[in-house]
Amino acid sequence: MDKRQVGTLSFSIDFGQPLYEQVLAQMRSLIAKGAIGLGEKIPSVREMAHELRINPNTVMHAYQELERDGLTEKRRGQGTFVTSSVTQIKHFKDRLAAEYTESFLENMCNLGLELNDIHNFLTKIIQEKGHR
Amino acid sequence: MDKRQVGTLSFSIDFGQPLYEQVLAQMRSLIAKGAIGLGEKIPSVREMAHELRINPNTVMHAYQELERDGLTEKRRGQGTFVTSSVTQIKHFKDRLAAEYTESFLENMCNLGLELNDIHNFLTKIIQEKGHR
Amino acid sequence: MDKRQVGTLSFSIDFGQPLYEQVLAQMRSLIAKGAIGLGEKIPSVREMAHELRINPNTVMHAYQELERDGLTEKRRGQGTFVTSSVTQIKHFKDRLAAEYTESFLENMCNLGLELNDIHNFLTKIIQEKGHR
Amino acid sequence: MDKRQVGTLSFSIDFGQPLYEQVLAQMRSLIAKGAIGLGEKIPSVREMAHELRINPNTVMHAYQELERDGLTEKRRGQGTFVTSSVTQIKHFKDRLAAEYTESFLENMCNLGLELNDIHNFLTKIIQEKGHR
DNA sequence: GTGGTCTAGACCACG
DNA sequence: GTGGTCTAGACCACA
Question: Is B19 within 8 Å of D76 when comparing Cβ atoms?
């Protein structure tokens, strides 16, 4: 695990799972949370690669997925920009939230838990976290 | 997606993700839910591989993980058996439930959701599912 | 997608594909449809670039292609003018129409469609459009 | 332009446009036309790369797009296979045919042609081709 | 054997 | 300067 800074953005990278997925996940998160605003430019492929000390192709791979997610757009010769459409971002978040929830419930059910158990369990965990 | 039968046990396999993980997940589930009872023998690597029409190495890989989970024990010359310790299984379930929940919450937070939002969201989904 | 005005001419620009091609395509269209008359002056590179808020090199690139198409002529010290030859424009339209049709048919055939299928398909689409 | 053979399949490659797009387009066509049957294995990345004398990464790029199109599926350790779903392939063909037609009509309209003119023009061309 | 990830470094089109 | 394509060659997980 390793922390690195790109402009005002902070990234952590961890060898042992695909680098491009880590970059992708963290960019998605930054955009979803609004840490990079609507229509804003994101770091160029080369800048990102240089700051994270990884290969430009690896960054590019992540950026192409971001675009497929509908979260970014390329502008020729200018760079890559977050979409200016709020609904695009909302759709993305809804889609991912549904996926995460679906697979969470499936995993828990496979352990033999009932929907009620799962709900109680999560409620308890969230309350504990809330008190921290 | 493809359904296959091994003795009284039913498996589904899907070529889009690691086979050994699928076998592992389904064995874990069968044990956690008691479909294979405490101390019961599980199918041999060869039998499993033959019935599922997959490579024995793949089954072996899954079985090794099961043993590492503390869910099974090998008995020389007799085969592999589910542990007879209830607490062993309980620990396993608790550990996995905690892991799943942890990573679910992390994913949802990365989408910019608050703990409250997540709780409400899950409550809603569970209610919908309950009505089906 | 973005709409911009140059004199009486209206342009739309979209950052997802080469800017110079968009300018070129729209100038071609304006000339082919007679929106800019025979022998008329077209906006200077500088004016165009300024109004469209794009780089003059980009406009220049498009204008060079226009001239290669035989649709415009440069007059020293006066600017660029649409050709006054009707046949010149007609040749251009015929050439382009043939090219478009050729590559359309090729693409459709590559999908495994027969000439008959293609004709029926296009007939249907055109009828639908006609009714709007 | 260069003709190369991969197993029973024939490919032509042409430097001057992206190699991976050429491989992609030709694989799409082979699948759409049924030259590679439902559920059949397509050449491995390495085999294709070797026969076409291009880099495996380039072939991989094309194959990933094929999978995104829903035309193929990977099976771990076994290779890449054409989908066995006829409807998947049909959807793909319909989608692409609509795209091609849409952009063809747009291009022709930009030349100042009416829908009627376009229809007549295409009818004429198709008849000529039919006589060959 | 299969596909997948990563690197280093080259060259191109676009603005 | 931007992103995009391509190569050569390494190493990994999976079956």
Answer: yes
